[in-house]
Amino acid sequence: MKKAITSILAACMALSMAACSAKTDSSDATAASSSASEQVAKSAEPKDIEAAIANVLGSDYLATVEISQDDLYLSAMSEFDMSKVASYVAKQSEIPSVDQDTVVIVKLNDKAYADEAVRLLNDSFSQIVNYTHQYPFNVAKVENGRIYKADDLVMFIIAGKSQTEDISDEQAKQNAADGYAKVDEAIKSLIGVIPENLAVVNAGAPDGGNGDKPILGG
Known about the structure:
Helices cover about 45% and strands about 15% of the residues.
């Protein structure tokens, strides 16, 4: 009789422990799912993202000249299918031949167009990188440019402190890194993530390019 009671108690304890384990596993799975969902990019308006970038860079933000719709053919959006675009911001520096600062943020009404938009932005990026290698100025800032794809947004950003003649290449690289860290945090504050940097120089680029490899890659 005692053996029977002991066996029943042991079985009850085993069932109780299994239930607790299942509850814990379920809680862990829910937490993991919640954490993953928090990493999904949120949409935002291009003008708000551009304003946030300008705000964190302050006087180092040089992309202050709006590219008019008539002049888009001169910009990184030159070959965009505008029927796929819901809204956008396109700005450059006052003297683009000296400061290549460019901020193009596009909100798409067709997310399927995002990969093509990234390809077109990379074409422009390749041209800017190659130009900068021919006329070396602000090389670190240009080479660390961003091309992001997140939800219905694509972004092309070259921005930050302009290099001066009295600073070393190492300091210029540090300035670029510091500036883009601020840019990334500004973007994250609005869309919830820092997307993967998709900026590459296309294969077959003129001498001075890096082939088909990311300039920054993350």
